[in-house]
Specification:
By secondary structure, the chain is mostly helical. Helix content is 84%, strand content 0%.
């Protein structure tokens, strides 16, 4: 690879390092213990695991750059061990996300037996309970009788309708055929008016397409603005670095 090909890659690496420094600035300014103590238990575990994984992955890449077989180094075993902690944390998060399932259920029949046994011996309550049971039974019987009557009435009405429609269909069809023939002969048959439903649907589709097109345009404009802002920031960083390098060379 020639030097001309390496220059854009080095500039990209420089920009990536700057972005990483900005992202890690709040963590690097304070010790790890201070930042982790402010977090809850699960977030604290995530923080420690991510920090260790980042450090060990840097050591792993450093060894590979210097020609060392990093897979045989103890760092590789540590990386695999840290990955297992990632799996444990994900399992805990899944358990917390699931709603708590009820392990205890109430046996209604057993509860009713206990209540009846506790209320037994009181004549007044026994009489009230018997009256309520009799009322429930009478209501259930009335509902069943009404449902049976309604079903029978609906069946008879449907049968009468079908028989009446069969008997009336033949003369009506004959009359309609004769009237249609007379209209054709006299030239009174007219074509039905065209419906406007497809036109309305096409207009609605056009409006939806316009709205989608406008939203996509706005999203593209926002992306372009964000890209332009990032490029301007990178240019400013490069200028600052070039000025710092020139100042160092001048000294």
């Amino acid at each position: 690879m020639e030097a001309a090909d390496l220059l854009p890659l080095l500039e990209q690496l420089d920009d990536n390092v700057d972005d990483l420094e900005e992202a890690l600035k709040p963590i690097l300014e304070n010790p790890v213990s201070e930042t982790s103590n402010k977090l809850p238990v699960l977030d604290k575990a995530k923080f420690h695991v991510l920090v260790t994984y980042a450090l060990e992955s840097l050591i792993f890449s450093y060894l590979r750059l210097h020609g060392v077989n990093a897979k045989e180094h103890p760092v590789f075993r540590e990386l695999t061990r840290v990955k297992q902690y990632f799996g444990k944390i994900q399992a805990l998060e899944a358990e917390q996300a699931e709603p708590e399932q009820r392990t205890m259920t109430l046996d209604k029949e057993a509860a009713g037996r206990f209540i009846k046994h506790g209320l037994a011996g009181n004549d007044k309550l026994d009489m009230q309970r018997k009256e309520q049971e009799a009322k429930h039974k009478a209501r259930a019987q009335l509902k069943a009788a009404l449902l049976a009557k309604n079903a029978a009435a609906s069946e008879t009405s449907s049968k009468n309708r079908t028989s009446g429609s069969d008997s009336e269909s033949e003369p009506v069809n004959e009359d309609w055929d004769s009237e249609e023939a007379m209209r054709v002969a006299s030239g009174l048959v007219t074509t039905p008016p065209e419906t406007t439903q497809p036109e309305n649907s096409q207009e609605g589709k056009k409006k939806k397409d316009k709205s989608k097109h406008e939203t996509s345009k706005t999203a593209r404009k926002r992306k372009k603005r964000s890209k332009e802002e990032q490029q301007e920031r990178k240019k400013e960083r490069r200028q600052k670095k070039m000025e710092a390098r020139k100042a160092g060379k001048a000294k």
